[in-house]
Each structure stands twice: as C-alpha cells, then as structure tokens.
Amino acid sequence: MSYASSFYFTLPEVILSLSGLALLMVAAFAGKASARIVTILSVAALFGAGIFTAHLLSDPAFALGGDAFSGVYRMDAFGSYAKILIYLATIGILMVTQRYFDSTGEYRPEYPVLMIFGAVGMGMMVSAVDLMTLYLGLELSSLSSYVLASYARSDGRSAEAGLKYFVLGALASGILLYGMSLVYGFTGATDYLSILAAMSDGLSGGMLFGLVFVLAGLAFKISAVPFHMWTPDVYEGAPTPVTAFFATAPKVAAIALLMRVALDPFGAQVDAWRQIVIFSALASIVVGALGAIGQANLKRLLAYSSINNVGFILIGLAAGTQAGAGAMLVYLAFYVAMTLGSFVAVLMLRDGEGRQVETLADIAGLSRSHKGLALCLAVMMFSLAGIPPLMGFWGKFVVFRAAVDADLILLAAVGIAASVIGAFYYLKIVKVMYFDEPAGVVAGKGDAASWVVLALTTLFVSPLGFLLTIWLGNWTNRAAAALFFAA
C-alpha cells in the first residue's frame, strides 16, 4: 500500500490533526477573545472530516476497505460508521458549550482544540488493527479527556473529577498494557490478523490471562460493571458539556474498539470471553438501574443510565455474531441521540440568574413553565426506558433479537426483565415534571443552538426516526459485515 493511499484512508485524522495544530496557534496568539471563532472553525473541521468519512462509507469502490501504513490502521465501513457518530456527537457538544461557561467566563479556545485532538484519538482507536495503534489512539483520547474533566478551574468538583479520572484511567491503562504484553508474549505478534491466527490453534493459559486483562482495561473505558466506579463521580463533577461529551463520543469509540478487539484478534475464541461479557452485561444493567433509583442529581442519574445502557449494548456482543454486531451499532446511534438530547436538556435548566440547576427537585412542575423543554426531556426519558414507539425500544429490540438468534434466550429474558427496573427512574423524572407541584427554580431560557440540537435529537428518537431505519440499517449492516470480513 502506497503512502498516498495510506494518507487518503487516514484523511479524516489528518484533517483534524492539522486543524487542531492550526487552531492551537490561533488560540496562543489571539488569546481568549478567539474562543468563539476557534469553536466555529473546530465544528467546520469536524464537519469536513465527517463528510469525507461518509464518502468512504458510501462509495462502492471502498466496500472492502483497505489497510494503511503497513497494516496498523484499517479503513472500513465499521470504523467509518463509528467515526461519523463520534464527529456528530462532538459537533453537538461544541454547539451548546459556550453558553454554559458564559456565567463564569471560563470558556477558552483550548476547549474546542482539546475536543478535536480527542476526536483524532478516537478515530485511531476504532480503525486500529494493531495493539500499538490501539494504545496510541486510546491515550491521545484519554489525555484530552483528563484535561476536559478538570476544565472548570473555579469549581472544586471539576478538579476532583479530573484527578479521579486520571488516577483510575492510569490504572486501567496499566491493566490494558499488561494484557497486551501477555498477548504479545504468547502470540509473538501485535497485529490483529497474526493474533487471530495464533489463537485459532488453541488458547494457552498465558493467552487467556492476556485476553482477560485486555477486556478488563477496555471495560473501564466503557464504564461497564465492575469497572464503573469512576463514572458517577466524574460525570457529576465535570462541567455538564464535558459530561455530555464523555457519555457520547468517547463511549462510542470505546465500545467500537471493544467490538473490534473481541471479534477480530479474539474472534476465534468467542466461547472464552462470552461468559465475561454476559456477566458484565447483566451486572451493568442491574447496577445501573438500581444505582439510579436513589439519585437526586440528574447528572449522577444519567451516569447510572449510561452504565445501564452499556449493559444492553453488551448483550449484542455476547451473541458474537454479525447480527449481534449490527444490533450494537443500531443501538449506539439511538444511544448517542438519547444521551446527547438528555444532557442538552439538563444544560438548559437554569435559574433566574443564569446558573445551572441539576437536581431532580429543581425540575418539579417543569411542564407548566417550560412546556417544550419538558416535552423533549420526557421523550428522551420514555425512549431511554424502551417504551414503544420510540427508537429506544427499537434499539433494545434488535439486541434482544440478536441474543435470541444466537440461542442466548435466558440472557435476553433476564435483560428484558431487568429493563423494567430501569423504567422506574426514567418515569420518575416524567412524573416529577408533570405531576409535582412547581418548584419555580427553572426560569432561564435556552439559546438557539441548544434548541436546534435538542429538537434534532428528539425528532430522531421519536416515531419519525423510523423513516431513517432503512438508511441506518444499510449502514450498520455494511459496518458489521466489514468487521467480520476483516476477521
């Protein structure tokens, strides 16, 4: 493969890397006053990278994908699909961020630059077909995230969130590196195809330990039980736009990375890791649902909701089939829309002085003073609960169907039963907004950008979203097929 082809396949990362470096210079010389223009240019760069990625995904000439830089990076429909979700989520976050920091004056041009470099790392993660490339992308994304978590200098909770995320993230990286070293030591390779060939002949004890440690390190990144302990504290302490970012774009990247690792280099040993995934899926569903019931802070509640949704997504991975992978990708699209919409609605909850409010008691009777906002938030909650005809129901349906088709009927049955628990706290939010006495706390108005993002995500998860299911199904089928073709 020539360098020209390699750079062509990696053009989304090249666009974002060059844009990030250029905007960093703008931020350095123009100072804080350039924050708005840097944000606009960052959105433009992400949009451009997304358009080119969509071209790679839809062009029949690239149906089989291609390797870049001697086989350490793979351009295929799977990676392109994940990148589009990552870029869209990041664009949505950047659109609604600046209003949040207006009251404190802490918004600086470094913020969108960090988002861009995080997107570069996430793009490398989902396209990596070598353990070294995987780790480089993961660390680039993580380093940006550590800074973003502690971005609000005047808020002690933000500093605490950044420190917790950094310490636990370093621990997870160490676990992942140890697992990668075991895999390399017992297979003699770091590229996925060679690892797959080595494990096809049988799984030694060292390989098994390496597999377990790699999956444990990646489980931290997706906040799956039992590696979820950082999520509620970091989500609550970080600035709300950063929390929305953590719950969407990096989550997509980490889940896509887990899918590629499990089904590509470890694809010959599905039975060896299926039990781990089943346990983590069920534990995440139950712990996420039970943990959210007693939460009074909306951000902590949505953190447990994120853990709960990861459990449902992992049911598709447990199936270990192409249908299961396609179901995960469908669920991811709806999950990004539901989570982004929910956090944007929380961002719009402001008191009369423009300060953020984020407790459940603060939104009591919200439907009487902010009908549109309450309606959109209610749609998000009903969709997250999996109530038809909203698209959250369809996301759960496809992963359960994939599990049943893979003869994991008991797993699907337990998952369906456990989803009833989660419905309780979602419906509780709706009940507080529509049936409790008004608290009169929320008095501020949302800005135009927030309303645009909230309206688009609400329409996507509404029954109108079914108009896009054929288009979405074609993309997810191609992405899942590319993943199994690579394996």
Automatic annotation (TrEMBL):
Q: What is the uppermost EC class here?
A: translocase
- Quaternary structure and interacting proteins, as annotated: NDH-1 is composed of 14 different subunits. Subunits NuoA, H, J, K, L, M, N constitute the membrane sector of the complex.
State the annotated membrane topology for this chain. Multi-pass membrane protein
- What exactly does this protein do? NDH-1 shuttles electrons from NADH, via FMN and iron-sulfur (Fe-S) centers, to quinones in the respiratory chain. The immediate electron acceptor for the enzyme in this species is believed to be ubiquinone. Couples the redox reaction to proton translocation (for every two electrons transferred, four hydrogen ions are translocated across the cytoplasmic membrane), and thus conserves the redox energy in a proton gradient.
Q: Which family does the UniProt entry place this protein in?
A: Belongs to the complex I subunit 2 family.
- The membrane-spanning stretches of this chain are 6-30, 37-58, 78-97, 109-128, 165-187, 207-230, 275-294, 301-319, 325-349, 370-388, 408-427, 448-472
- Localisation: Cell membrane; Endomembrane system; Membrane
Cited InterPro entries:
NADH-Q_OxRdtase_suN/2, ND/Mrp_TM
Q: What molecular functions are annotated in GO for this chain?
A: oxidoreductase activity
What name has this protein been given in UniProt?
A: NADH-quinone oxidoreductase subunit N
Q: Which reaction does it catalyse?
A: a quinone + NADH + 5 H(+)(in) = a quinol + NAD(+) + 4 H(+)(out)
Per UniProt, the keywords (alphabetical) are:
Cell membrane, Membrane, NAD, Oxidoreductase, Quinone, Translocase, Transmembrane, Transmembrane helix, Transport, Ubiquinone
Its Enzyme Commission number(s) read 7.1.1.-
User: Where is the NADH:quinone oxidoreductase/Mrp antiporter transmembrane domain positioned along the sequence?
Assistant: 128-422
